[in-house]
What we know:
This protein is mostly helical. The chain has helices at about 5-30, 45-70, 75-100, 115-155, 160-180, 190-205. About 65% of the residues lie in helices and about 0% in strands.
Amino acid sequence: MSRSTPTARAAAGLFLITWVTSVAAVPLYGGSAFGTDAPLAGRTSVLAAGLLEVVLAAAVVGTAIALYPLLRPFSPAVAAGYLALRTLEAAVILSGVVAILPAVARPSTDAAPGLDAHLVQALHLMHDWTFLVGPGLLNPINAALLATLLLRRRVVPRIVPWLGLGGAVVVAAMNLAVMFGITKPVPALAVPLFAWEIGLAATLFVRGLKPPEQARPADHAVPVAA
């Protein structure tokens, strides 16, 4: 029998924070769906969105830190790789926050930044790109890495990592299509990846991960590097 631990429950709580902050920040910025002519919202709204994304970045790294001691007995390489990829994703998110805030404010003053409209549009575009590269492309990679380990070791219900693998492929493909101008974002395609994180968080909170002595590689699977 597996059982939940404070560390597993902390990881579940941090996943919850990533969902709330990532979803709440989008409307606060004003435009959505990478609209090239979508105006930014007001100063207070954008600052609040930026703060939410700072919390998002911290929670993204926090999930990997909390999962590291739980994953390391199964594969130190995957545990370290997941931590590195989540940290990289958070760094990209923060670079987008730093890019967008000068468009609406200067530190320590409530005066308008007085930037040229074209420069503001460029900063907005930079933020859109960081959103596409970070949550849009890096997140599917780290999700696939973690889901593969959990599937091979059978430490969570199999439907959970399968959602992660399927969702990662769909979201990565959609964002690559967006990157090359083939299509606009389709938010509904992100549902399986959200379902993966919800299922993983619920499993971590209720039962945790099976201990290594109870876990085993899936039949005919290539063993995960120790």
